[in-house]
Amino acid sequence: QKEVEQNSGPLSVPEGAIASLNCTYSDRGSQSFFWYRQYSGKSPELIMFIYSNGDKEDGRFTAQLNKASQYVSLLIRDSQPSDSATYLCALDNAGNMLTFGGGTRLMVKP
Amino acid sequence: DAGITQSPRYKITETGRQVTLMCHQTWSHSYMFWYRQDLGHGLRLIYYSAAADITDKGEVPDGYVVSRSKTENFPLTLESATRSQTSVYFCASSVRGLLYEQYFGPGTRLTVT
């Protein structure tokens, strides 16, 4: 099992819908969780981080963490075409470095 | 506010040549990192530095050398480039540490022929 797993996609949603991106991980000791957005040909850009179980909201973005089930999700409300990008999940792995998932490509169609 | 800059942005080199990728940050972040991004492997940590003159290996350090004589600079050297080192290289920095939010530079696309 990979340490951080994401469905590569593409995940296609219509404009205005909620996009739900998921990430599962194997290290039960992981404490820090991050979501990055990466446009094609660009560098990863930090969107959110979450450390505690539950939901964390920032504008149209909500991160959800469930440590017991070992998953972290990112919800994007009112999706816009400009949200079309690859979303990378990252988390601390064995407490010694951040490990990144392969990313989920999101396509928001007008 | 320039943040993190990388140079060159694109580089083509031949197998066996030495190549140095530059990274400069203006935030005075203590931590700096080098990653490579490849299809099928995602982002992988090559080396990181917690402060000037302190560096440590990441997940894939073989074939690379780093130094950090000044807080703001963190060059990555490929001592004898191989085709398997063809990749996109990202420099990143963090004010809080290895396990906290990191901010990425624009990347360097390196092709080894």
Please describe the structure with a list of short key phrases separated by commas or semicolons.
heterodimer, A: 110 residues, mainly beta, B: 113 residues, four-stranded antiparallel β-sheet, 11 strands
Walk me through this protein's architecture:
- The complex is a heterodimer of chains A (110) and B (113).
- Chain A has 110 residues and is an all-beta fold.
- In chain A, 0% of the residues lie in helices and 55% in strands.
- Chain A has strands at 4-5, 11-14, 19-25, 33-38, 45-50, 54-58, 61-66, 71-76, 85-93, 97-100, 104-109.
- The radius of gyration of chain A is 13 Å and the shape is globular.
- Chain B is mostly beta strands.
- Chain B has strands spanning 4-7, 10-13, 19-25, 31-38, 42-51, 54-57, 64-66, 76-78, 87-94, 103-104, 108-112.
- Classes of the chains: A mainly beta (110), B mainly beta (113).
- The A-B interface holds A 31-32, 34, 42-46, 49, 88, 90, 92, 95-98, 100-103 and B 40-45, 48, 58-59, 90, 98-107.
Structure at a glance:
Chain A has 110 residues and is mainly beta. Chain A contains no helices and eleven strands.
Instruction: Return the string of H and E elements of chain A.
Output: EEEEEEEEEEE
Tell me the radius of gyration of chain B: 13 Å
Which consecutive residue ranges of chain B, at least 5 long each, have pLDDT under 50?
A: none
State the total count of DSSP E strands of chain A: 11
